[in-house]
Please model this.
Amino acid sequence: MSVRMSSKQLRENAQLVLKDKKYAHHLQNVLSLIQDYDSNDVQPCILTLEMIFGELLRRREVGKVCTSPEKSASFDTNYGFWLRQRYERTFTRLLIVLKKHSTASQLQALSTMMKLLALEGRYPLEDTPKGEFYFPVQRLQFIILALLSSEQNMTDPLIRFQEFTSYYDVLYFVWKMLPNIALSQKKPNEIFIKNFLLLIDKIPLPTEEELKANSEMILCSPTGILDGPGFVLNMHYLRKWLNRTWGCVMHWDHTPTTHHQLLYVLLEKVLPYLDHPLLLTDFLMDSLDSGGAVGVLALQGIFTLIQKHNLEYPNLFVKLYSMFEPEIFHTKYKARLFYLSDMFLSSTHLPENLVAAFAKRLARLTLVAPPQDILVILMFIGNLVLRHPGLKRLINHPTGGEVNGDPYIMDERDPLNSCAMESSLWEIQSLQNHILPSIATAARFINSPLPSVEWDLTKILEQTPDDIFVRELKKKAKEIALTFDKPTSMEVPGGERLTHYWNF
Amino acid sequence: MGKPKAKRRGLSESASAKGAMPKKTLNPFEIHVNRQKFNVIGRKLKSERGLPGISRSRAMAKRKATLLQEYKVKDKSNKFFDRRIGEKDREMTNEDKVIARFTAERMKSFKKKQIFNLAEDEVLTHRGQTLSEIEKFEDFHSDDDEDVNDTGKLGASFVEDAHFGGGPEDRDKKSRKDLIAQLIAESKKRKAEKQNIREQTLDLTEKLDTEWHDLLPIVASSKKKPTDPVEVEKPDSYDVMMRELKFEARVKASDPLKTEQEIQEEERKKRAELEAEREKRMFGGEENEQLYKHRSADDLDDGFAIDVEPEVTLTYDLEGNIMLRELESTEMEEESSRSANQLDKVNENQEDSNDGGSNNDDEEEENSGSEDDNDDDDEETDDSLSDLRPSSGNESSAEDVKDNQMSQKDQKEAKQEREEQTERIKIEDSVETMNNKLAGERLLIVANLLTEKDKSVFLQSVKIKFPNFSSVPETYEALHKILKCYNAEEQGVIIDHIMKKNHISLNEVNRSRLETLFQFLLQHIDHSASQDAGQGLKVLNYLAPSLYDLTHMSPECVSRSVLEIIKEKQQAFQNRQQKYPTFNSLIFFKVVSLLFPTSDFQHPVVSPSVVFMCQMLFQCRVKSRRDISAGLFLVTMVLEFTVLSKRFSPAAINFLCGVLHLAIPKRLVQVASVLPIPPFRRVGEYSDLLLLEDKVEDVDAPFQMKVADLSEETIDTSFKIRALASAVAMLGEFVSNLSYLQASPNMFYRASVLLSKVPIHHYPTKVQTEIEKLSLAFQKLKEKTLQFLVVERKRPKALRLYEPKIETVCDGRRIRPMGPEKMERERLLHKIKREKKAALREIRRDNAFLSKLKFKETIQSDKERFQKVKEIFGSAASQLGEIRALERKKNRLKK
Model:
């Protein structure tokens, strides 16, 4: 029966099935179509099945599982049994679609399964013990296992799945099964880890405020039975499962990309719920050493630990100092880095030569930095000088005079030994001749007395080159200056360079 | 006769009479004197004497004329004013009225505008022609020419027929209608004939007039001939002289024609002004950083500084000799301003190039880089030339004075020396001029490949093909249709022609047309560059003068359209970042650099372009030959933008470092500080695109980049060498431009380390020398001494000054000392107070006047009422009396 059916035909079929039991064979047709069609055409079939079974579940016509259909059973029982078989098969087919097919079909299959799952929770197929909340855990487990594929990147279905995790019962049961899944995987491959971490990222534990605000978000709420059993979200269990899961995840072998993702998920979602966050210190410190984006994320983790969990780490500033490399401008998290280092260096009790070393190093970086970062760094240095009045000697030497070569040692790893205090911020002075007027003006702050209030870094941290371009466009001039040498050719009179280096 | 006399007496007499007449003697009883307690001599008071009666009556009259009138028309909404002149004046005669009205009309025509315009009078016309035109009598044809016979009367025959037509028997049967028609036709014919004859005579007269002029000399000579030569007296020399003087040709004074030199001088001045302005913009409002050692509160900030002689304590050494310590003049170094640095630099370059390094760029820079330098050179040559003159009172005369004091022999030697000097200078000059000439010739060749004649011929041919090509096309497609048939040079000629035909001076509408033309041209450049980079550059090359002219016609619009394009390109780039855009985006930076001063600190067009360039250099991945070339193109443009302003761009230097890194075998790069900065990769597929594996033979060709590099993907050996050579040369120029910056050693540190790692022996010797030269320059940079930053000391604040307490006039009253503004305010307040008082008094008197008037009115109306009542009573009484009389009569009759 590999005849293609239009969506109209499918709908007619569905209506027939629902109308009378004698047309039940049409259901079989539709079901077989899922297998036959290639991935792009599956969607209408899935929708049709959703419609049919949704209605059937509501009518409670799908029967219970029996090992063998009794002959003596009535037609209705047999029909129910038959329907149940079809229902189970539908589910397996949908799982296959979720695992193998194209993104659109995957998404459709996932949402259909979740809808059926919700209906099943409301109209249970099996007899449920009274007074207990019923949730089709088995089905959910299949879905989750399909989502945590080891072969395919499931980013889009996982993002769709996030919509369902706002139901507390789904959230609860997912977390409940996660430790076992994590334990079962000894040496998972990269794709699995990615999917797993993404799943964790998408199922955040609700905060206290959220718990108070909407406690009614439950997928399988038994609307039919008014005095049915309610669902209680046990935060204690959730935390326990989370810790257990995380313990497993940390012990897997991580590639650089998953390491990065792991840190991200850890910082954004997991860290606040961990029982013993200080155990992460070594992990974070190792990550810090690897530098780049991972380093920045680790730095943030350390910052949280220091701030909330009283971590003391003596070598922190050396590490932070070593993170300021020219490559940092081309990583994703540079805004985070600047923000965090501004926080770290906000203490006025730091030794002056340490801060001076930071200022000097940042100033050196301005010589190779893109414009938007130069602006940030200039404000940053300005803030450092404001906090530590002793640093004023970097921009206003008490005696003046001259020196052969910069005393500051860029290659020194220890900021305290870099001789930054003997230097001056010549880089900033040179930046006053930067090609961009906005930077040249910003660099003039060292010429005049400093303001009494610190500059607000947060406003410009996220600036992009396009922003600078747009801002430059918006500047209006009263008069537009023009050249006054009429060119006779392409060469600019008095300043031609192009034709010297290029042979046209 | 009496009347005109009386008129003639007029003004002057009445004026004198007034002066002569004694003042009207006033009745002393009418004068009211305000006595003053203290007389102040010399003070004049207005209110010393008053004439209460007169002033009261005057006020009454005034009120009657104004307030009373208003009172009368009060509550009456309609008004009728008869404004005809003299209508109410009974004394005027009718004629007078007419005259008065006419004069008023005339007066009206003298508007205020024309008061001082004495020359322009009312233009009188006759039949639409001004009288002055008619009165030239140029085309005078007297009415006498008219046929005397033509009196407008009917012809005799007609009269005979029509008027005195006898019996109808012997006449043709002609109706009256026919007759009239015949008559009209005849008269028309006659008129036409007459007109014809008249025109002929006129023509002949004119002809005669003209020919007569030719004949005149003959006639004159024929006249002269018969006169006796003896009769001609020899004129007196005095007379001759006098007449000569009298009839000497006189020319009206006019502005003297400017000589070539003056024009040049003017041009030079204008240029200097423009350049000064440019310089000012270059620093962008940043005040000149002059470091004063000491700044006093009284400093006027005019840059004047007293040179304080360093105090030298008189000391003696052990043997009793005076010790003179040369104080190290640190000030000198500080004073050495930026411009001086630049000059030094240029001189260095000059030396370099003279030394034999055939660095084309340096020479070019010397020639065309900065006019100031050339000027300086010129001055130098001038000086030395003037030195040659035996009596020179020149400023470099210290030597001369010495020379003069020397013996003659010495003088000779000195002369020789000087000659040598001048010779040297001459040679230098000639070298320079040669260079200049070469450059100039190249330009000329470019500009004048087509001579004028060829151009016109060419334009004709274009015209045949496209009849209306000289008007600005409406759409870009139309322009493109024309331009695509011709090569770049011819396109330039066509555009030039279009611009000439549509110049603004011809019609102001052309401005908007030319603005659209500019946009079309940009589009055209874009289009041609997108097809082929070389073609785009060629088109730009020939369109550059036209673009320049268009820009100067309407700077706002042009800058807007260029900016629009840059914006568009930037948006396109935003969508596919990390990839160098195609050449049709890059070429517009060249357009910007052609049209706008790139040295400005801030410029509405240049600054966004710079941002865009830096953005590309920082973000775009370098993966192929095209990418490297595009990057190098951008770096060249950055260099061109900063040639004058000597600004610093990390993006450009980073890119050049990246290019160096591409040419280095990777095992050598281990030090952290020489790792390339993204977008260049540390290792991997694209990290050694330019690496030369083996030694390459020397090639004679110059190592310039080529247009083809911008489009091709594959990298060959020649490209590897050229890219590196260009990068090295550009780095060298950046180093020389930026070496004045304190942080320059750190700026180029990375580049210097990378350069030292380049496998130098693989390259041709020319490139090797370039690399060595650059590393020498780096070495030099490293030895630079740095001055610690010291914030310029702020000028101390002066004490607040108060207004000095000076009284100009002492008249007993003390005026409180106050500022001029406050004084003015006080004065005005006082005035307001007084005016208010006066106004109140006036109002009070007006009220009194009105109430008196009302009172009078009520009395009047009462009186009338009484009168009427009386009358009524009277009539009633008489009526009653009559009735009674009648009754009495009746009674009597009854009796």
In short: The radius of gyration of chain B is 51 Å.
